[in-house]
Amino acid sequence: MLQRHIRWCVTALLALVTLAHSAPSQAADPAIECATAALYVQNGHLTEAAALYTPAAGETPLPCSAAGLKDVSDKRMKARDFAVKGQKKLRAGEPEEARFEFGEALKSDVGNTEALDGLAEIDAQEVRSAERRWNRFYNDWIVPALQLIVPFAITFVVLLSLSGLLSRWLVGVDSVAWPREVRKPLGIVGWVLLAGTAAMLPVYTMFPFEPEALVPKPSFWSLFALLLSAPISVAAADLLSREWRRPCSWVHWLRFLTCMVGLGIIGLLVTALLPDGPEREQRWLIAAYALLAAYAVLLAATVHGQNRVCRTIG
Hints:
The chain is mainly alpha-helical. Helices cover about 75% and strands about 0% of the residues.
């Protein structure tokens, strides 16, 4: 591109010098016109060169006209050959090689329409290719990411808000403070369950799966885990809370324990009442999802309330 601009500048400067040395009433110097025409040919401006080599009606041809017109014809033929090669490369799906051939054609003839059209087609193909790549990236990555992140964020905020509202009811100001050895594991489990519950909703909507592929009867195992975790959590926390124990400290676990047992009973009833049919397994999965969501909110709320109690004591 830079060389082309330099050639234009040199050609224009030489043309101005030629006009400056030509008097209106005198014939132009043939040697200067031949040199100008040769420079045009050298830089690929064949139309301007042919105009100088071709005399007007009644004028004497330049002494270099015959050789100059032959050079113009050869240059045009050479440019057409390069343009044909470029078109073949373009049809073969090789745009960079085609661009090179079209560039060589324009070096011989800057007005070669086939080369100019070929370069325009390559540029248009690159624009279309960039648009296709963007559309593919948008449809394959951005849209699924938004479909995953937005429902996840909304569900997570809703569950977190519910746990915050329940925390003051589950853990009173006079409750026995759980030791750090209990709060931290239960808090981690609660946060993981909250995040998993929030992620499960968009993931299952985007990628439905069969429950058998995960765990046979997932709601049964969820109920089993809930029923076992409640008394174990109460007993372990009560034993580890000796430093802060008060008489009948288990009373302060009563609401948490009641909620855990209540979830288990509700889940068992739902499981027992599930009708047989082709959608039974999907209903198992929905029941397990609802139980785990409730369990996540319960744990997060309890641990949040315990953290508040510990800060109050501290």
